[in-house]
Amino acid sequence: MYKPAWSVVWETCDIWKGRHKQCAKVTLISESVKGPAPDLQQVSRKIQTILETIKKLENNWNTNMQSLQVSRNKQLDEIRQTRQKINAILDKIEKNTIKELDDKMTTLKASLKTDLDNCSKLKNELKHLSDAIHDIVDKGKAELSFIASMKCLEKIRQSETYLKENAVQAKRLVTFQADIHIEQFVSTLSGLGRIVLSYPDQVFTVQGKSEYHVGIPSDSSFCRIIAICVFSSDQILLADDYNNCVKLLDQQYKVVAHWDLNAEPSDFCQITPSEVAVAVNAEETHEVQFVSVNGGHLVMGRNLQFQHECVGIAHYQKDLYLTSDNALYRYSMRGDFIKKLYEDTEDE
Q1: How far is Cα 255 from Cα 245, in angstroms, rounded to an integer?
Q2: Can you list the residues of the chain whose pLDDT is less than 50?
Q3: How far apart are CA 27 and CA 4, in angstroms?
């Protein structure tokens, strides 16, 4: 016997009646087989299809496991390279500190040697005078005694002055005062960096779609949005190239401000949390227009002119990167040319 809920029981279900009091309906298997025979081949094909899918999934998991291990080994190398860079920096700091110590020692030793030489010279001069006095006394000549007395008194005066100036000898030592900020900063670190998960093969799927009307009465054509960015205030800036303008939307996606440009906008990039640089391009117009958002208003800033077409634009590390149809240029934020990074000359 079986239940429609796919629970099969013995035909002699009576002896298990106590266990099937909760069954809403019990049907004999012999009664159920009276209908069309099940297509077991179709069931088998379905099972094989599922098995193949599961096998592919299993292979993907195994591949993912191997890729994960490879990723771990690669990141371990990155960690060790980071440690080596830090070691190199610390070695350089240590070398500079030792050089400073040696320079101090050289200066102090030179000063001490000068003091020692002066002391030895004075000692030798006094000893020489002392020996000379004994010889003069033995000779008993008054003129020599007078001259010796004058020289001795002068040298005694010099010696007393020297001793007075050096009565207190300050011991000279060098000490190392560690920069506590280095140790304090390092002690606050929990690691050399952060470990983050990435999904390089992740496929983005659309979860939902909404349509909003961003046309305004002054539009001469229907809108075509070629660039978009979201500011921290959740305001949205659009570039509408069919109507030669940029439009500011509020959080409800309503146009609250717009600004007409000299020609078609081809692209824009965000410079600051409230400013973008718009690439404007036409037959006679090649420029970058800076636009700022102030509350619910658009404010035009400076304008940069170029001799080549301005098709694409990006901002990186305080420089602007512009593309024409076949070249990539690098400029400063003031519009000063820095370098042509690439040019495709195959069509020439």
Answers
A1: 12
A2: 1-16
A3: 8
Predicted model pTM: 0.45
CA distances from 144 to 126, 132, 136, 157, 292 (A): 17, 10, 7, 20, 100
Burial 47-67 (b: 16+ CB within 10 A, else e): eeeeeeeeeeeeeeeeeeeee
Distance CA 316, CA 79 (A): 26
State the DSSP code for 333: T
Is the distance from CB of 295 to CB of 288 less than 8 angstroms? no
**Which CATH code for domain 225-343?**
2.130.10.10
* DSSP labels, 226-295: EEEEE-TTS-EEEEETTTTEEEEE-TTS-EEEEEE-SS-EEEEEEEETTEEEEEEE-SS-EEEEEEEEET
Do residues 215 and 232 touch, judged by C-beta distance below 8 A?
Answer: no
Percent of the chain with pLDDT strictly greater than 70? 89
Distance from C-alpha of 132 to C-alpha of 148, rounded to nearest angstrom: 8
The DSSP 8-state label assigned to residue 27 in this structure reads: B
The rounded distance, in Å, linking the Cα atoms of 267 and 229 is 11
> In this structure, is the dihedral angle defined by the CA atoms of residues 41, 42, 47 and 52, taken in order, positive or negative?
positive
Q: Which segments of the chain belong to CATH 2.130.10.10?
A: 225-343
Rounded CA gap, 40 and 254, in Å? 59
The DSSP bridge pattern shows strands 319-323 and 327-332 to be antiparallel
pLDDT, tens digit (0-9, with 9 covering 90-100), for 220-235: 999 999 999 998 778 9
Residues 6+ apart with CB under 8 A from 322: 279, 288, 306, 308, 310, 311, 312, 313, 328, 329, 331
**Contact status, residue 261 vs residue 278, Cβ threshold 8 Å:** yes
Helix (H) or strand (E) holding 78: helix 40-139
Q: Using alpha carbons only, give the angle 324, 235, 206 rounded to the nearest 5 degrees.
A: 75
